[in-house]
Amino acid sequence: MKPKVTMIAWNQNDNYVVTAVNNHLLKVWNSSTGQLLHDLVGHADEVFVLETHPFDSRIMLSAGHDGNIFIWDITKGTKTKHYFNMIEGQGHGAVFDCKFSPDGQHFACTDSHGHLLIFGFGCSRPYEKIPDQMFFHTDYRPLIRDSNNYVLDEQTQQAPHLMPPPFLVDVDGNPHPTKYQRLVPGRENSADEHLIPQLGYIATSDGEVVEQVIGQQTIYQDEQGLEPSILDGMIRQLQQQQDQRIGADQEIPSSSQQNGEGTPRRG
Prior knowledge:
Blueprint: E1 5-10, E2 16-21, E3 26-30, E4 36-40, E5 47-52, E6 59-64, E7 68-73, E8 78-84, E9 86-87, E10 91-92, E11 95-100, E12 106-111, E13 116-120, E14 135-136, E15 143-145, E16 151-153, E17 168-169, H1 178-181, E18 199-203, E19 209-213, H2 219-223, H3 230-250, H4 254-257
Antiparallel strand pairs: 1-2, 2-3, 3-4, 5-6, 6-7, 7-8, 9-10, 11-12, 12-13, 14-17, 15-16, 18-19
């Protein structure tokens, strides 16, 4: 295999350079002389994350597609700490990025399964205030392009960044309680009835009846004559109210906002 450098990083005081090679080794070099000082062994797949400690020049963090996260003492060429990103029932998750906090007491990583991993000193109590799984119900809504090639939400025909704030759901699309919905910027002062997406039962094309968050139904289900979406209707209503406010601010006739041409303008 032809050696190839996949990532490179200088340490905090620039005395060392660490390179990640496609043979899964990390190499520590003297930045002044170019002398190879250490081979760091531990990874079993390619490494695309090298992160230096914000103030300790000895410390370097590495993470790779093998799910391993290492903290190294690059002056000694030794392994200080090791974590393995094992996901129950799914094997390991490749680590795509890592960053230290400014004080060097924590670091956070993201993986191939959409997880945010937070490591550090102290307790986990602050993180218990939020649910483990947080997705927006609009994350997988279909998009279209208009005649000007601008991206629009298929249901509301609006630019996604101009739509009302979305709802927080878990990985299966089930809505979180209202106290979590108010964590979404723009929903802090919403009425309770605007914070509770509703569950319903729908019939699939083969006749099977399944439970689903009504707001997750697609435009294709509407075309098939399935149960209309209460949450989608709520979104349409919120969108109309928002459009009316923008129209009033800009003193634009409402008919000009309903012609469907181009994208809406900001107030």
